[in-house]
Amino acid sequence: MTTNRDVAAAWSYHDGTKHSLDSLRRDPHSLDWGNQPLAFKVYTEVEQVPLPQEWPSADMATLQAIAAYPSSVAEPCVPDLPTLAALLYLSAGITKRRSYPGGEIYFRAAACTGALYHIDLYLVCSDLPGLAAGVYHFGPHDFALHRLREGDYRGALVRASAQDSGVGHAPATLVCTSTYWRNAWKYQARTYRHCFWDVGTLLANFLAAAAALFPAARIVTGFVDAEVNRLLDLDSEREVALALVPLGRDLVPVPADAPPVAPLGLPTVPLSKTAVDYPAIRAMHAASSLQTPAEVQAWRTSVTPMHHAAPSGELFLLAPVSEGALPPTPLATVIQHRGSARNFAREPISFAQLSMLLTQTTRGIPADFLPAADRSLTDLYLIVHAVDGLPSGAYVFHRDRLALELLCAGIFRKEAGYLGLGQQLPADASVALFCLTDLSAVLQQLGNRGYRAAQCEAAIIGGKCYLAAYGQGLGATGLTFFDDDVIEFFSPHAAGKSVMFLTAIGKPAKQQRLV
To answer: Is residue 515 part of a domain?
Structure first.
């Protein structure tokens, strides 16, 4: 059996799912619209707990919320049902509906590859104000929690996470999962990347909403996969847990014992007539799974600082960002009106806008694979087309200096469009922002599970870029890319690195008003 430390598995998956001109030309895949999976997981025989339609207002300014890094909470902090409703809505809820002759399109709070929405949220909690202890599934389609198990099962998560301190004191823990087929219908084996892209953009929303509404939330990616999947009664050949998010703090530790986790076999509405299996997805998930609490503990202690190269070229210091100068647009307003830009106007944004975006999106992510706010697995590379006061060209961002290093000056719109899979959006945007990582170093530290972490961190940054752009009246969209061509473009500086995520940012051709 392949283990987490057999990193050839990650390289095999990563290299095998790279995009190139040749791979696209050879791919015979076409979309079977008659077999498109449902965008929701729908249980047919469980108790429904409707979520309240009124909840606390997330009025914190968007650019303040995305930059928040939670501090230790000394006092008890327990979410009530209206707060949970707000967090679920702002991260995974349906924000808009649009009818068309064949049916209805549902737009969600966070972006998702292909608008296929394969990420589901579950809740494991003690007795909370307005909600009895249990294991629940969140249904965006009916805005309700569906009770899968009654009783306090938090101890199962404490064991699975090897006594993680956040999980061990959390009155509630959110669990994010992916159902492969709901995304693989379009994207095939590359879906395992999208699992973490799409959970990352969702978590960017969730962390910002938690900053605005609730003082304690953190991401835990180290856990015994089989135990968490068993608790949620998942068919782990098709749906798997990706991340835990402990919420709040109880002073009394979670009881170590939990009721027996018996199989449930709860029926759900079939997703489609048939499902196509992509063994590469399952193989990569198995190779990056952790088998025991002891392995989880050893994995967690292997996290060490990553090396980021010092600048050697011309530096452009970002414009200073003061909290009083941040645009006041509330987070809830941005999330409710946000979309993915379909066209950019090829107009410049200001250097102050770019500075705000970079400063506020890179102030740290509270995750177990990033033990401090100044740690990161990711390097940000930019192709700047149109930013007032900044020469057009290729750059790398130095977080510790809040500065951009010019790698090569020039107009690279044509190149950016090609790198973004030949799409016009990264060519027309003001900036194309690429998240790269030294995958060799990540895998050496964290094993195959580091692949999950690197993809997830890059996507959280991308999700924050979405919010930061719309919070400033700009537009943003996430894109896929030609992997090796991106590295070649930014080399020699980026030689040996791997691309994780691409976000295009600029002025939308059709201005979106936030009211």
So the answer is: no
pLDDT tens, position by position, 439-473: 999 999 999 999 999 999 999 999 999 999 999 99
Judged on CB neighbours under 10 Å (0-12, 13-18, 19+), 268 is middle
| Displacement of CA 75 from its chain's centroid (Å) | 29
Mark whether 110 and 194 lie in a shared domain. Answer: yes
Q: How many CA atoms lie within 13 A of 105 on its CB side?
A: 8
Q: Among residues 239, 268, 301, which one ends one of the domains? A: 301
**Domain finish residue from 301, 334, 363:** 301
Report d(CA 73, CA 251) in Å as an integer. Answer: 10
472: Cβ contacts below 8 Å, ≥ 6 apart? 63, 327, 329, 353, 356, 357
The tally of domains found in the chain comes to 2
Q: Examine residue 14 and state whether it is found in any structural domain, yes or no.
A: no
In 3D, which of 201, 281, 501 has the Cα closest to residue 289? 281
Same domain, 240 and 327: no
CA–CA separation, 211 and 65 (whole Å)? 6
Percentage of the chain beyond pLDDT 70 is 98
Contact 145, 51 (CB under 8 A): yes
**Where in the sequence is the domain holding 86, given as residue range(s)?**
40-301
Residues 293 and 353 in one domain: no
Please check whether residues 171 and 69 belong to one and the same domain.
Answer: yes
Element housing 394 (H / E)? strand 393-398
146 three-state secondary structure: strand
Do both 236 and 369 map to the same domain?
A: no
Quote the CA–CA distance of 514 and 60 in Å, as a whole number.
15
Task: Judge whether 30 lies within some domain.
Answer: no
pLDDT digits (tens, 9 = 90+) for 313-339: 999 999 999 888 899 999 999 999 887
Task: Give the pTM.
Answer: 0.96
Burial of 71 from C-beta contacts in 10 A (0-12 / 13-18 / 19+): exposed
